[in-house]
Amino acid sequence: KDFTLHRLNNYTPIIFKNPEKFKILQQIQTPHKKSIYRILLIDDKYFATASEDSSIIIWDAVNYTLVKTLQGHSERIWALIKLGTDFIASGSSDQKIKIWDYKNFTTSKVLSGHSAFVTSLLEIKSNILVSGSHDKTIKFWDYKNSKMYKNYKNDGQGKIMTMIMLSGEELAVGSDSNINIINIADGKISTKLAGHTGLVKDLLLLDDLQTLLSAGDDFTIRMWNVFTGTCKQVFKGHSSSCNKILVYNPSIFITASDDSTIRFWSFETGNTIFTLSEHESWVISLAITRDGQLLSVGADKKIHIWGEEVNN
After folding, report:
1. Residue 41: which of 66, 14, 11, 15 has the closest Cα?
2. What pLDDT does 116 receive?
3. Residue 105 in contact with residue 120, Cβ under 8 Å?
4. Alpha helices per DSSP H over the chain
5. Which of 16, 66, 80, 95 is the most buried (most CB within 10 A)?
């Protein structure tokens, strides 16, 4: 039940618009001084961007205007997620996790315990936050009480870059060239998905709950059956690291890359069907709004808004 709620709370709209009609509708030059590493749709009123400059900016989701800049981290922010209805959480190179009351623009909690970059965060059920780090540990927190109650470190675990829930019992953890399936109850690795030849940057579980997509520093996206541990397909086309994956509709998924492009891929053929190339440098993070617009951010410090031109 908690897993179902988790998936609904992180729902990405399924869009059936033709990506070949997508144009750049707007480019917002942000006040961020360095690369934007995350964009997060919080609710119908707000979205947020998090940067290598250690700041988080809260934006008006209707007018795309700046609402508030949150300061508190001292280094790059790698992870940004929504917690419940009132909070967002961020993980940083400063080894800290910060819980923010985004409606009142204040820091609520600071969680300390990692000894390297905090790169991935998940809320697995109410009040329970999971963090992954380059210190190769996975920590479980009761964030309302600022208490860490589990700390897992496996000999076969590399630097953690991304995590995703597979079920109420298992996590998939992407790290140095492999994906480890980890049992939540005891922290042990049950399966290793091997095939990437570089850091695994992002993971996405499809709605069948058995097909996993992974994006890596080896320029590829891979499709896995998590039950059998086998790689079903390798998607090639990017000329640099793949940073982010989103499902666009049941036939198409999207990726962002350090090669400055966003690609739309066919699940059926494995081929790129359309490419967006307006970014001036790395494309690091993506989001899809409920009305079907695509938001992208990266090293050029801009928010790019993509969609179909009206009356075109």
Report:
1. 11
2. 97
3. no
4. 2-9
5. 80
pLDDT in tens, 163-185: 999 988 999 999 888 899 999 99
The DSSP symbol for 145 reads: G
Query: pLDDT above 70 covers what percent of the chain?
Result: 94
CA-based R_g, the chain, Å: 18
Distance (Å, rounded) from C-alpha 190 to C-alpha 105? 41
Question: What pLDDT score was predicted for residue 120?
Answer: 97
Structure tokens belonging to residue 114: 């990692």
- The DSSP annotation for 231-298 comes to EEEEE---SS-EEEEEEEETTEEEEEETTS-EEEEETTT-SEEEEE---SS-EEEEEE-TTS-EEEEE
Confidence of residue 309 (pLDDT cuts 50, 70, 90): confident
> For position 20, what pLDDT does the model report?
84
> How far is residue 258's CA from residue 131's CA, in Å, rounded to a whole number?
25
Write out the H or E segment, with its range, that includes residue 180: strand 176-183
Amino acid letter at 167?
S
CB 200 within 8 A of CB 215: yes
* Model confidence at 2: pLDDT above 50: no
The band of 135, judged by pLDDT with boundaries at 50, 70 and 90, is very high
Question: Residue length, the chain?
Answer: 312
- The CA–CA distances, whole Å, from 293 to 12, 13, 98, 309 equal 12, 10, 29, 11
294 to each of 12, 44, 152, 212, 297, how far by Cα in Å?
Answer: 11, 15, 36, 22, 10
Residue keyed to tokens 């039940």: 1
